[in-house]
Design goal:
The protein is of the alpha/beta class and 222 residues long. 38% of the residues lie in helices and 23% in strands. It is built from 8 helices and 10 strands. The strands form 2 sheets. The chain has an 8-stranded mixed sheet with strand order 3-2-1-4-5-8-9-10. Strand 4, helix 4 and strand 5 form a beta-alpha-beta unit. The longest helix has 18 residues. It is globular, with a radius of gyration of 16 Å.
Length: 222
């Protein structure tokens, strides 16, 4: 893998709040980013907005298939409902690439958010089954899209748990977290442990609603 500054990161769901926010912060850090969307025109429109916000030129927009083809590392930040179908459709384009799944399978009712049961165990494990030739990791589940989008917040005060079975892949994903000022990538275990990390997002949403905050995680003594 090339040095991080030469790595091209693709974001599937790059026009949504989470993908767009991470793309903005990576672009500010000097990393080349491709926003992916079902519509290439919509992706390029969003890319133009990020270029203006970040004051950089290394952000482009393509459709999801082209994004998966062109990128070295691909973040999956799509709605849970379309997660499986999209990844299965990109199996060939994502082969041998590092895939970062940040999708949280959540439901909402009158009592608030709750974790959904996933047949494969977690969204990340569903991605692993859909993409047997990819290097699947899980990370960036608990980062506030509101904070990411607000460049007046110079440092994103949060630790990012990175899970996966490929040591080099998790090291690169941790480096992507470290590239964002204030953020720190922490190895969080094997991919089989992704369920509780995804599910914890429901707890953080409850915290944020009660305290009107944008809470994240910090790991102590590391």
């Amino acid at each position: 893998m090339a040095e991080l500054g030469q790595v091209k990161v693709g974001v599937l769901g790059g026009t949504g709040p989470q993908g767009r926010g991470l793309a903005l912060r990576w672009a500010k850090a000097g990393i080349s980013v491709i926003l992916g969307s079902r519509s290439a025109d919509r992706a390029e429109e969003a890319a133009g907005e990020l270029r203006a916000l970040a004051g950089v030129e290394h952000v482009s927009g393509l459709d999801n298939k082209a994004t998966a083809t062109e990128a070295d590392v691909v973040l999956v930040a799509v709605p849970w409902e379309g997660h499986a179908d999209l990844l299965q459709s990109l199996k060939q384009e994502l082969a041998n690439k590092i895939v970062i799944d940040c999708v949280n399978p959540l439901g909402f009712d009158k009592q608030g958010p709750f974790a959904l049961s996933v047949a494969e165990g977690s969204a990340a494990q569903q991605a692993e089954q859909a993409l047997p030739d990819s290097r699947v990791t899980a990370a960036f589940h608990h980062v506030s899209a509101v904070v990411l989008a607000d460049l007046s917040i110079a440092e994103v005060d949060i630790d990012v748990l990175v899970l996966g079975d490929d040591r080099e892949a998790t090291d690169i994903v941790r480096a992507l977290a470290d590239a964002i000022p204030g953020m720190r990538g922490i190895y969080g275990g094997r991919l089989r442990n992704a369920h509780q990390v995804e599910a914890l997002t429901a707890n953080l949403i409850a915290v944020n609603r009660r305290y009107k905050a944008h809470a994240g995680l910090r790991i102590t003594d590391v």
